[in-house]
Structures are given as C-alpha cells and as structure tokens.
Amino acid sequence: MIYHILILLNEHYLTPFLAFFLTTTSIYFLKLILAALYSPIQPDDLIEQSKQKRQKYSVIVPVYKRQKYSVIVPVYREDPVLFDRVLTSIETHSSVGLDSIIVSIDGDNPEARAIAQQHNTIIVECGRVGKRRAMLAASRALPDSTQFVIVNDSDTEWTASTLDILLPFYRPEVGGVTGTHVITKPMSNLSSILASWLEIMRFSVSVKAQHVLGNVMCLPGRTMAYRRQIFEQAIPYVASRTLFGRPVITGDDRDLTTETIKQGFRAVYQESSIVYTDCPRTLGDLFKQQLRWYRSVTRETLVQMGLYIRKMPVQQFFSLEFILSAPILLLLVGRFFYELLAYGVRQPVLYPLLIALNVLVYIGLNYIKYLPILARNPKYTIILPLINVLSFVYIFPAKLLAAVTWLRQGWITR
Known about the structure:
This protein is α/β, with parallel strands linked by helices. 57% of the residues lie in helices and 14% in strands.
C-alpha cells in the first residue's frame, strides 16, 4: 500500500491496485452510511400508528401477536440434541398466534421423527427429496387458518424476540422478512470466531443497507417469514426450478426472496428479531459452507441480472462488486507482489522496512474501516488481525472458487 501511495505522490499515477482499494473502500463506506439510516419497526410504532388513525389497539397488534402463523422446520441429518432444543425454543417463545409447527423430514430419519413426536408438531415425511421439496411438502400441510409462514432451519434456536419478525407485516407492501442471526458460542474456536464476524458484517452493514434501499436481496434461510399467499405461490416453482436443464439444489432462500420481489412485495429486515444458530465446527467445513453460499450468490447475481437491475439497481451493483472483487484482487495482488519484489531488488536495505510499513498500514486501515462495527462489538478489537488472516486464507479462496464453479450444485457440508 505504501508503495502505491508513494507512486501516486511522486509520479502522480494512480496504480490499478490503489484504484481498486479506493473503489471497494468507497463502496463499503457507502453501505455503512446507508446502514446508519436503518431503523427497525418497534411495537411502540404500531401503538402510535393506531392512535394516529384513531383505531383500537387490537386492530394493529394482531399482526404481531394474534394473527395465525405456522413454522416449517425442514430437517436432514441434524444433531438430535440440537434439533430437540430448536423445537423446544420455538414452543417456548411462540405466541397465542402459533397455528402449527410442521416438521418436514427429508429422508429416512427415525431419530428426527421420534424427537418431533415428543413435541406438538405435524410430521411430514417426504423421502430423500432435498430441502426445496421438503418445504413444498410441508406447505401442503399448512392449516387453513395460517396467515404467515416462518421457515426455520433445524439448527436455529428462537429467543424471546424472534417473533418480532412478524412486526413489518402490518405494512401491506411487505411480503417477506428476516431477522438477525447470531452464532452460538462465537468465541469457542477459530471457525466460530470467523463465522460470527462474517454474520456481524452481513447484518450490520450489507443487509441494513439493502433494506434502506428498498429490498434485501436474500432473506437468509435460517429463519425467514412470508405471507402465506406469497409462499404458496412461490414454493412450487422454487421446488422444481432448473437451470440449464439441471435441478437447482442450493439457494432456496434467495429464490423465495426473488419470487417475493417479483410479485411486487418488499423483502425487509427486522433487526430486533434474533435467533441463535450453529456454525461449522472446523475451518474446512466453514470454507465449504461459504463456498456453497458464494456459488448461490454468484449464480443468482448473473442469472437474475435483468430483474435485479430493474428492481434493485444499487443492490445489484453491490452484488456485482462482491462477486468480482476476489478475481480482480487476485490479479492485482499478483502484480503487487511482483512490483514489491522488484523494489526489493533495487532497494534491498529499505525492503524489510517497506514490508513492515505495508503490514502496519493495512492493519491500521482495517481498524479505521471497521471502527463503527468494533464500537458495537468490542470483543473483536484485539483479534481483528487474526480475522483478517483467516478471511484471506479461507474466505478469499472460497470467493475465487465460487466465481469459476458457480454452476455446481450440492450442499457439500452434509
């Protein structure tokens, strides 16, 4: 970095590496500014609206407390103890509006069936069909009275605030909602540290910025809520979708979000709705998870480009920057190290000093860049350099591999 700054100052030449750095940093700060404008809906907002419209409190509140919702939990090869904990958390933190908990068992899974039978659930066994068709099978078991559908992963636990995910539905233009996903035991090992940081960045910056712009491009599938009519119209297509003649397996949450937006509804974020979720226990498995997600992001960014440009041009720009940044950076980093090595040949005495300065400047710039995030999450302050190293070793290669293998399907981690 110092080398490129010196070239700019001495030769008045903006190198490609510095241009790339300034561009990506500017985009990041634009997202940060947008995220700062985000404001979640609070229960008090509904009370105030009811007063303004001179309506009774009970007219507005049922959307949050009393209107009927069902929870669909697809399950495949889940840890039995965790699965039992998830169902318990849903029952514990549900309101009087809970219509049903539908457990859709993907494949022959006697343990999951036995656990589901211990809870007040509707059990749907659909054979080994994949998550998309498991959700479709569950949708056919929805009670007639259900108005909202919450899809919840079998490793994601509810909290006392999870049902805030229903708050935005008092606005008729809202069709889908996601909440904040927090990694359980975020400091237990290197994998959880990196995973929790990625989730913090995702929801603190990207998701909030997209919400402010009108639509979140992907309501993450760990816990997402939809109006029933939207879900029932979308899920048959999502379950049977093909691309270039091959079934699409991953990215069901992205497809459901896209179909919601196609129907003219908004996909939004409710920060106060919090769930706790498991993460891969090893860095290798985390790499596989991120690779699967990045493939899905890359695929949909390219395949749905026309729709996204019409409906969400700024979000699409952000998404293109996300998938293209890794390949571009690879080329520029190669050139950077070549130039750095050439400088070392010319200036062998100053070479170690230049390396040290580059490292210090990089660390310093990252602390400046992430200062607003670290202010809210101070426990990551000391380990930020470690997170940067782990990101370069595991996340950067996952983005690169996804850029060239985005047509490949498969969950990889299960």
